């Protein structure tokens, strides 16, 4: 979904945001999947050392928002608003390294987009799956 050029532009816009604080970086992909990575680090761990569920939800909402922005051709007059995000944590995460998020559009309408986001460890194991609904306000 994202070209390297799009990733470079998106990643440059993260300065001073929560997305930057969590270390989220967009990744290029040749298919219809939006991808990003996030480190498992002090900013993203819970108190006993594994990935915080809230960090997973933040990664999912970030990916779905960027995917929606891509699908509306970066129309900056439109606002992408998250309506709902839910998550199911499947396995405990690693305590170091990074996770990879993969967002797939389930419904791409004129005013709503629904995304499924799967988050994997570096070993390819599914850690969590999220569903994100975005509203496109024009």
What is the secondary structure topology, with strand pairs?
Layout: H1 4-12, H2 18-21, E1 25-27, E2 33-39, H3 53-71, E3 79-89, E4 98-108, E5 112-121, E6 126-137
Antiparallel strand pairs: 1-2, 2-4, 3-6, 4-5, 5-6
Summarize the structure in short.
With 138 residues, the chain is α+β, with helices and mostly antiparallel strands.
Can you give keywords for this protein?
138 residues, alpha+beta, Thiol Ester Dehydrase, Chain A, 6-stranded antiparallel beta sheet, 3 helices, 6 strands, 23% helix, globular
Structure description:
With 138 residues, this protein is an alpha+beta fold. It has one domain: Hotdog Thioesterase (Thiol Ester Dehydrase, Chain A). It is built from three helices and six strands; from the N terminus they run ααββαββββ. The protein has helices at 4-12, 18-21, 53-71, and strands at residues 25-27, 33-39, 79-89, 98-108, 112-121, 126-137. The protein has a six-stranded antiparallel sheet with strand order 1-2-4-5-6-3. Strand 5 (112-121) and strand 6 (126-137) form a beta hairpin. The longest helix is centred in the middle third of the chain and has 19 residues, at 53-71.
Give the full name of the CATH homologous superfamily: Hotdog Thioesterase
Q: In percent, how much strand structure appears in the residues?
A: 35-45%
CATH class: Alpha Beta
- CATH fold field value: Thiol Ester Dehydrase, Chain A
Note the run of SSEs as H and E. HHEEHEEEE
The parts where pLDDT drops under 50 for at least 5 residues are none
**What is the SS-derived class?**
alpha+beta
Largest sheet: 6 strands, antiparallel
Count of individual beta strands:
6
Helix content: 10-25%
Question: In what order do the strands lie side by side in the largest sheet?
Answer: 1-2-4-5-6-3
**Distance from first to last alpha carbon:** 23 Å
Mean pLDDT: 96
Shape verdict:
globular
Q: What gyration radius follows from the Cα positions, in whole Å?
A: 14 Å
Please work out how many helical segments DSSP would assign: 3
Work out the count of structural domains. 1
């Amino acid at each position: 979904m994202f070209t390297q050029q799009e990733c470079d532009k998106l990643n440059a816009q993260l300065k001073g945001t929560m997305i930057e604080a969590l270390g989220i970086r967009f990744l290029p992909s040749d298919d219809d999947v939006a991808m990003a990575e996030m480190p498992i680090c002090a900013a993203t761990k819970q108190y006993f050392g594994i990935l915080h569920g809230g960090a997973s939800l933040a990664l999912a909402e970030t990916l779905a928002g960027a995917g929606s922005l891509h699908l509306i051709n970066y129309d900056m007059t439109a606002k992408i608003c998250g309506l709902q995000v839910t998550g199911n944590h499947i396995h405990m995460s690693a305590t170091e390294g990074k996770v990879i998020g993969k967002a797939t559009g389930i419904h791409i309408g004129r005013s709503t987009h629904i995304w499924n986001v799967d988050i994997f460890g570096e070993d390819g194991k599914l850690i969590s799956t999220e569903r994100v609904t975005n509203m496109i306000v024009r």
